[in-house]
Amino acid sequence: MQDSTSSASEARVAGARVVVLGIVAIVLILGGAGAFLLLNLPDANAFNARVEQLFVDNADLTSAAEIKLLEVLAGSGTAFSDVLAGYRLVIFVLMLFATGLLIACLAFVATIILLNRRVGMIERQGIQVSSLTIDREGNFVIINDMEFKLTSAAVETISVLAEARMDGEVLSGAEIEAVISGRPPADCEEASGATRIKRLRDALGNQIVAELLIKTVARQGYVLDVDRNAIRVA
Question: What is the full per-residue pLDDT of the chain (234 aa) written as tens digits?
Fold first, then answer.
């Protein structure tokens, strides 16, 4: 149990470290790319400066048409400055969105990796069940803090397994069917008990939980992988 807790803690620490390093890398990369783009955009007043230079270099342009042309150029310079200012704002907003999306993706990936590690630890070490309460009248089972509503047949099946576990026995499919039906094991089929086990696992819902909670012992039968002292049958 201590090794399992230690491994889970180490996995959480490693996941948090990956997220922090990833966020720092994303901010640095996108910050550098954004700064490069903004610094390499033309100066917003570059066009106005060229138009002003045209006014200075062509002071002898005095006709109405020539003056009108210079005014059009000046107006174009102002419009160009506004467009560049808009581009800078758009780039800044897009960089913020890109940073947020990449950070969210990194967090999801780290979460998936952490969950896969936890599932792997569960598959290797089994489920730590601190309490298993079976209520035959209410037709439900409480595993740790999780409540599972079952059919009466599924409750009977898990009750038989629980009683066998408290007695330290492993029951075959035929023996499970015999206890539930009240017939001799010789008159019961192995497939009937196996079907009851399958329906119980389906009723518990989560396949990983069900497969690890109800162990199949090769050439012997089925057993609850639970400490006998943690079982309560009402």
Answer: 444 445 555 655 666 677 677 778 877 887 787 777 777 766 656 666 776 676 677 666 666 766 676 667 666 766 777 777 777 778 788 878 887 888 888 778 777 777 777 766 655 555 577 788 888 888 888 887 778 888 888 889 988 998 888 888 888 989 999 989 888 988 889 898 889 888 888 888 765 566 667 888 887 888 887 777 778 777
Transcribe 143-174 into DSSP letters. Answer: ETTEEEE--HHHHHHHHHHHHHHHTT--B-HH
How far is residue 118's CA from residue 12's CA, in Å, rounded to a whole number?
10
Looking at residue 229, its amino acid is N
Structure-token pair, residue 173: 């499919």
C-alpha of 80 from chain center: 47
Q: By CB neighbour count within 10 A (0-12 exposed, 13-18 middle, 19+ buried), where does 196 fall? A: buried
Under 8 Å between Cβ of 164 and 223: yes
Q: Cβ–Cβ contacts within 10 Å for residue 83, how many? A: 12
Could you tell me if 223 and 124 are in contact, meaning their C-beta atoms sit under 8 angstroms apart?
A: no
Count CB atoms within 10 A of the CB of residue 165. Answer: 20
Cβ neighbours of residue 185 closer than 8 Å, sequence gap 6 or more:
172, 174, 175, 177, 178
pTM of this structure = 0.47
Distance CA 41, CA 88 (A): 8
DSSP classification of residue 184: -
